[in-house]
Amino acid sequence: MTYAYKLMDSPVGQLKLVANGERLAAILWQNDKPNRVRLGELIEANDRPVLIDTERQLNEYFAGTRREFDLPLAFQGTEFQKQVWAALLTIPFGQTRSYAEIAVQIGNVNAVRAAGAANGRNPISIVAPCHRVIGASGDLTGFAGGLANKMFLLSLEAGQTSLEAQADRQTDMFAEEGKAKVEAQARPEAQTKPARHAPRRGTQSSLFGT
Question: Which of 76, 97, 98, 185 is the most exposed place for a label (fewest CB within 10 A)?
Answer without folding.
Answer: 185
